[in-house]
Amino acid sequence: MHNTDHIISSSVVFGLDPVWVAVSILLLIYGVIMAEKFNRAVLSLLGAGLMILCGVLNQQQAVAGIDFNTIGLLTGMMVIVAISQKTGMFQYVAIKAAKVVKGEPWWILVMLSLVTAAFSALLDNVTTVLLIAPVTLLITDALGVRPYAYLFALILASNIGGTSTLIGDPPNIMIGSAAHLSFTDFLINLTPIIPVIFFTVIAVIWFMFGRDLKASDEKKLLIMQFDENAAIKDVVLLKKSLFVLFGVITGFTLAHTLHLEPATIAMFGAASLLLLQSWGQPLHDKDHAYEGIMAEVEWTTIFFFVGLFIIVTGVEHTGVISMLGEKTVAMTGGNFAATAASILWVSAIASALIDNIPFVATMIPLIQSMAPTFGGEEALTPLWWALALGACLGGNGSLIGASANLIVAGFAQRAGHPIAFLTFMKHAFLLMLLTIGISHVYLYLRYLS
Amino acid sequence: MRAENIMVTELTTAHVNDRVSDVLDRMKMAKLRMLPVVTDEGVVAGVISTFSIMEHLVPNYIVSGDLNQIPYAPDMGILRRHYFETIGKDLLSVMETKPLLVKRDESLLSIAAALTAFGKHEYALVVDEEKRLIGVISAGDILDRLGNMIEGIEDDA
């Protein structure tokens, strides 16, 4: 029997069991999202609307189900990134990285991966690859080498880097918000294992592709002719962006002490940078600049989250998720280590095959429902790390595993070097399993032994 | 005033199977920057212009907007390499396949508005119902005609 406390008895359409209605809506919407025939934001909002129209939730419950901390954090960071990217700092760092290693093809791959991982940890993966991948193609063109290995490494690096912080990847933002885990919690608990995973992956990539990456001295000299300083389009804006970014990151690390939510810090940082970026300009130009930045916010993603939170709240209200949580615990015999391992591996495989955002949205209440079994919310913390590692690193398993992967694949296609789905998966899936294996050992040694 | 009153009907065209190098020579000889590309039946298949050829010389990941401006990049020999590749191709793979098409009875205002909105180049192809090419109108043609009207050489009937 599921937990009847949550079940809504009122006015579900045609007197149907709300459990079946809610689960049907969730499965239908997730199924169509996976088919990738329609825009996922439209589908999630349709699903959210159906949850209300069918009487599973009323509007108040639906709105209460939206995690505005996640929404605020995402939106704030999107605004900051939209302004910062105009400075050309991403291109500057990428070119500088290539020149530091004197144009050596393999070391350029390592440096670009490192830069991608670092940016992905502090900003978002999609923007990072959106700006680093085209420069990478330009560099590989100059070197006269095939770009596949570089783009492959970029994808893996962006997901690995994104795993390391609260703000690096949307699943972490959702987990942090739901489980009240701070930026510092992520730094202390997830960041330490990331360099191990990163350099292991780089070592394997060397065996896969690195030995074949060669360029003539003439081509290497060409890399040295790139002028990274010319990449900086607006020095004043760069200073303002770095100032605000530094403030926001500092704010994240102090958030817990200051009793502030990350969304407050991100939104305040976004508003400050919006103000600073057009400071001193005529009102008309300011308005124009604000509208331009607002247009760059990924509203599709934001509305996708809004709809998703409502859909999951609908299912949660019926008690199904608690029931699934109980069953999961029963399957692992109430063994905490086995539960953590299951969450890690199932999240990884699922995230490689389906969008990890709806998956994590569903897993969050499921893990929360395990609190009574394992001794309260505090005790669940290792399970959150398992979910974060599984969902973020799992995105490396296939081309559709994460948005950043699809962005890079799009670049490769346009550059005339398409990345085949199966070729990528052949290389990436085993590497993803390796990273999950490392994560498993890490979780076991640190929290479960 | 309608398209048919202003269009140029003595046309230099290219065929879909022509090679880019031959068409470039023809454009140079005729001092034109754009040629309509037609099939055996005279149906418009596209447009070849110096701009569309140039687009093929710059890597896709740049022209698609991913990298807008690259003031930090050296020459790298990319343009030269792509130029040799491109001039050996036939027009089908290089031409722009969606040119601005207008009907012979469209007004000057409508054509001017369409040219402005289209933005890619300053030519509109005038076609009949079967999409056969019957004329070309450039932004310059429109401006010349407007100038003539103001000077009283022509009226706007």
List descriptors.
heterodimer, A: 449 residues, mainly alpha, disordered N terminus, B: 157 residues, alpha/beta, CBS-domain, three-stranded mixed sheet, 6 strands, globular
E-strand count of chain A: 0
**Could you spell the SSE succession of chain A in H and E letters?**
HHHHHHHHHHHHHHHHHHHHHHH
Q: Stretches of chain B where pLDDT falls below 50 for ≥5 residues? A: none
- Identify the quaternary structure here: heterodimer
The first-level CATH class name of chain B: Alpha Beta
**How many distinct helices of chain B?**
7
The major sheet of chain A is characterized as:
none
Using the CA coordinates, give the radius of gyration of chain B: 18 Å
Determine the fraction of residues in helical runs of chain A and give it as a percent range: over 70%
Helical proportion of chain B?
25-40%
Order of adjacent strands in the largest pleated sheet of chain B: 1-2-3
Task: Give the tally of β-strands of chain B.
Answer: 6
Structural class of the helix and strand makeup of chain A?
mainly alpha
How is the main sheet of chain B built? 3 strands, mixed
Supply the CATH architecture of chain B: Roll
Percentage of residues in strands of chain A: under 5%
Q: Quickly count the helices of chain A.
A: 23
Question: Which stretches of chain A of 5+ consecutive residues score pLDDT under 50?
Answer: 1-9
CATH topology of chain B: CBS-domain
Question: What would you say this structure looks like, in words?
Answer:
The complex is a heterodimer of chains A (about 450) and B (about 160). Chain A is mainly alpha-helical. Chain A has helices at about 20-35, 40-55, 60-65, 70-85, 90-100, 105-120, 125-145, 150-165, 170-180, 185-190, 195-210, 215-225, 235-260, 260-275, 285-295, 300-320, 320-330, 335-355, 355-370, 370-375, 380-395, 405-415, 420-449. Chain A is globular. Residues about 1-10 of chain A have low confidence and may be disordered. With about 160 residues, chain B is α/β, with parallel strands linked by helices. Chain B has one domain (about 5-150): CBS-domain (Roll), CATH 3.10.580.10. Chain B contains seven helices and six strands; from the N terminus they run αβαββαααβαββα. Chain B has helices spanning about 5, 20-30, 50-55, 60-65, 80-85, 110-120, 140-150; strands at about 15, 35-40, 45-50, 100-105, 125, 135-140. In chain B, a hairpin with a 5-residue loop joins β2 (about 35-40) and β3 (about 45-50). The longest helix of chain B is centred in the C-terminal third of the chain and has 12 residues, at about 140-150. The interface of A and B includes residues 91, 225, 226, 229 and 416 of A.
